[in-house]
Amino acid sequence: MGSTPQARRSDTRERIQKTALDLFVSHGYEKTSLREIAEALGVTKAALYYHFKTKEDILSAISRDLGRPVDELIAWAEEQPPTPETKRELLRRYSAALASAMPVYRILQENQATLRDLAVGRELRDRVTAISRLMHAGDLESGCRMRVTSAVLTVHFGAFTLDGAFTPDEEAGTAEQRREALLGVALDTLSGAYSPAPTPALAPDHA
Amino acid sequence: MGSTPQARRSDTRERIQKTALDLFVSHGYEKTSLREIAEALGVTKAALYYHFKTKEDILSAISRDLGRPVDELIAWAEEQPPTPETKRELLRRYSAALASAMPVYRILQENQATLRDLAVGRELRDRVTAISRLMHAGDLESGCRMRVTSAVLTVHFGAFTLDGAFTPDEEAGTAEQRREALLGVALDTLSGAYSPAPTPALAPDHA
Amino acid sequence: MGSTPQARRSDTRERIQKTALDLFVSHGYEKTSLREIAEALGVTKAALYYHFKTKEDILSAISRDLGRPVDELIAWAEEQPPTPETKRELLRRYSAALASAMPVYRILQENQATLRDLAVGRELRDRVTAISRLMHAGDLESGCRMRVTSAVLTVHFGAFTLDGAFTPDEEAGTAEQRREALLGVALDTLSGAYSPAPTPALAPDHA
Amino acid sequence: MGSTPQARRSDTRERIQKTALDLFVSHGYEKTSLREIAEALGVTKAALYYHFKTKEDILSAISRDLGRPVDELIAWAEEQPPTPETKRELLRRYSAALASAMPVYRILQENQATLRDLAVGRELRDRVTAISRLMHAGDLESGCRMRVTSAVLTVHFGAFTLDGAFTPDEEAGTAEQRREALLGVALDTLSGAYSPAPTPALAPDHA
DNA sequence: GATGAATGAGGGTTCATTCAT
DNA sequence: AATGAATGAACCCTCATTCAT
Contacts by C18-25 with C-beta closer than 8 Å and gap 24+? Predict the structure, then answer.
C-alpha cells in the first residue's frame, strides 16, 4: 500500500554517498573526480556542493556512517577489563566489523598517501590505532606484545587480502569461511601470548 | 689513477631516482609532481624527460633497482624444494629483503589505488604474489594454508607498521629488534602449519 | 492601541539591507556572496530573492535609503542662486551629509571597478557628479574652477581617509573634529576662488 | 642595423603584463579573468602560469615596474630635511610621478575592496602612505596638518578625476594643463600651512 | 645533456540565480 | 514569507607532456 516511489525530501545526499563510495573503492579517492560522481548520478557538480562542503566531506560522511560499528566496538572494549578473554572477544568482533565496513577501510588502505594530510584520514586511522591499543592494553612483555601484533595484523590485513595477493585463488571456501579460518589462526597466535610457554622471541631456534 | 672520465658521465639519472624516491615516499606517488622533483634537484622538468620517458618510468626504474633483492630471493626459492625448512628460510630472507627494500614497497602499499592500472604497479604486486605463492607451494590443507597466510601477512605488513598504528610507541627495542621478534612469531605460526597437531581452524573453541 | 499588527509585518527586508550593508562595507560588494548574507541572517539564499530581485537590487535599495540626505541636498542646491555663499553652505552640508551616509559612499569608493557597469553604480556616481556640478555652477575662470575642485576633493575624499593612509595615526582629535578642520581648509581654499587675488594657477612661482 | 623583429627569448612575459594592465584598468582586477587575458594574447591560461605564479603575481609585477618612480621619489624624500621647501618639491614630483604611473594607481583606487587582503594591495597602499607620511613629517600643529592633508588629497585624487566626476567636461585645457593648475592650488594650500597666518581651523567664520 | 616555452585536459570550488513546494 | 534542491557558467590553478633549440 503506497510505497512512495520517490521520497519527498530528496534522497540525493545518500545517493551521492553511495555512488562516491563505489567510485572511491574502484578508482581510488584521488582519481575519482567530482565530475565522475556527478555524471554517474545524473546531476551537476554544483549539486554535490549543495549537499557536501568539499570532496573530503563526502568521504567524511561515508567514514562516519560505515565506521560506526567499529566505533561502537571500541566503546565497548574500553569498558571491559583488559583480560585475555576480552581480547579474544575483541579480535572476533573486530574481524566481523571489518568484514562489514570493508569498503571504507579499503579506501583508507589503498589511498594512504592521499589521506595522510586529510582530517578524514586521521579519523579512519584513529579507529585502527584504537583497536590496536586496546588489544595491547596492559601487556608488558615484549614477546607477548609481538604475538598480539601478529594477531591484529593477521585479522586486519587478512580482511583486505582474502581474495588478493596473499591467498592464492585456488583457495577453497567462501570469503566468509576463509575469514573465520584466518581469525582462528590469529586467536591461536593470541593464545600463545598469554600461556606460560616461552615466547618465540626467546626460543633458540628461530634466528 | 686519475679521474676516470667515464665514471663522471652525468649521474643525473641516479639523482633523479633518489630524489623521486624520497618524494614518492614522503608525499605519495600521485601527489608528487614532476615540478617538485625537478625543483628539488635544481633542474628543469624537461630534464627529467631527457632521462625518463614518463613519470611512471621513473618509478619503474626505482622498482627495478630496489626490487632486485626480492627478485633474487624469488629466483632462489623457485629452485628449492617446497619443504617446510625452505619456507622457513624464505620467510626469514623475505623479512630481511623487505627491510632493505622498504621504500619501494611502502610506495606500493600507500598508493595502491593509483598504481592499480600502472604497469609498474603490476611489477610490484607480482613480487609480493610470487613470495606468497612460494610460501604456499604444495600446501593442500586449508588450516595449514591459513597459518602460512598469517605468517606472511605478519612479516609483510609488520614491516610497514613497526613504527605505526599497530605497534604502540612505548614498544621497546630498535626497529631491527622488533622486526626479528615479529619474524619469530611468524615462524612460530608457520611451525604450527607443518606439525601434526590439529590446526586451529578445526579446533572446537574458536567459533 | 495594543500591538499594531501592521507594524509587525516582517522586518526581514530591512534586516537584509542592514546586514548586506555591513558586509558590503567590510568585504566589498563583489566579495560578499549572497550565501554569506543569508547565513549571517539565518535565512536561506532563496529568502533574499523573495525580497529583492537581484543582488544588485539589494545595494540599490541601500543606495536609495542612505543616499536620500544627499539627494535632498542636491534638490536644495538646485533651487539656490549659484553664489559663493551658496557654495560655501553646500560644501558644509555636503561634508555633513557624507559623514552620515559614509557606508554607501565607501562602497562606491572601494568597488568602483565592479559598480562601473551596474545601474546602482551610476546612481551613486550621479550624486557625486551633481554636487560637483553645483559647486562649479557659473564659474568660468580656470584658476577659480581648480580651487573649487580642490575644495570638493578635500571634503569628499577626506571623508574616506580621515583614519586611513592620508592622515597619520598620531593625528589629534576625534573623527568629527578632524572632519571639521578639513572642512575649514576646504572652505578656505574655496574663499580664494572668489576673492580678487590672482589665482595660483597664474602665479609665476609654482612651475 | 638589423632590427630583430622577433626577440629570441620570448617577450611573452612583458606582453602578459601589458595586456593584463589594460584589462585590469578597463574591467577591474577581479572582473578580469585569466581566460580573458590569455585569449587577448592568443595563448593558453597555462602559459600565464608559466610566467607568473598566480594572478596576483601578475599585478605584483606590474606594480613593481610602474611603481618604481614613486619608490625612487620616496627614497629621495627620505634623505631630505623635512623643510617646507622639500615638501613643496615632493608634492610637485609626486604629482608628476602619479601622472606617469596612473594606471596602477587607478587599479588600486578602483579595486580597494578586492586588493584589501592581497599582498600587492599593501605594496600599493604603502607607497601612498609613505608619501603622506613624508608630507606630514615634523608637523605638529593640527591646523597645519590639515592643510597638508588637503594638499595631498588634492594632488592624489585629482589625478584620478581630472576627466571624471569632479572636473566637469567642459573644462578647458589638456589633462596636463589641468594637472598643473590643480598642483598650483595644492601648493597654495600648502603655503598656508607654513605661513604665520592663523590656520583656518581656528578662524571664527567657518563653523 | 638540458632548457624555455607552451599546451590541453582536467582538477576542486564558488557564484548568482531559479523554481516547485 | 520562505525553503530545499538544483543548475550552468565561470573561476583560479596544476598537471604530465612535448618540442624546438
Answer: C20/C58, C20/C59, C20/C62, C21/C62, C21/C66, C21/C103, C21/C104, C21/C107, C24/C59, C24/C62, C24/C103, C24/C107, C24/C111, C25/C103, C25/C106, C25/C107
A36 sits within 7 Å of strand E by its CB: yes
Give the other-Cβ count within 10 Å of C131's Cβ: 25
Return the sign of the alpha-carbon dihedral for residues C58, C60, C61, C62.
Answer: positive
**The pTM of the whole model exceeds 0.85:** yes
Is the pLDDT reported for residue C139 higher than 80? no
Q: How big is the C-D interface in CB pairs under 8 Å?
A: 172
Q: Is the pLDDT of residue D150 over 90?
A: yes
Return chain C residues 22..51 having CB < 7 Å to nucleic acid strand F: 43-47, 49-51
Contacts of C101 (CB under 8 A, 6+ apart): C66, C67, C69, C70
Residue given cell 649521474 in the structure block: B11
How far apart, in whole angstroms, are the C-alpha atoms of residue D86 and residue A160?
A: 79
Q: What is the DSSP letter of C118?
A: S
Q: Is the CB of A54 under 7 A from strand E?
A: yes
Nearest to D76 by CA among D56, D53, D64, D92: D92
State how far the alpha carbon of D81 is from the alpha carbons of A77, B21, C180, D148, in Å.
78, 60, 30, 17
Total residues found in chain A within this entry = 207
Query: What value does the mean pLDDT take over residues A45-53?
Result: 97
Within 10 A of D24 (CB to CB), how many other CB atoms are there?
Answer: 25
Nucleotides of F under 7 A from a protein CB: 1-20
Alpha helices in chain B (DSSP H): 12-27, 34-41, 45-51, 55-78, 84-110, 112-115, 119-136, 142-161, 175-194
Using the beta-carbon criterion (under 8 Å), do B30 and A29 form an inter-chain contact?
no
CB contact at 8 A, A190 and A151:
yes
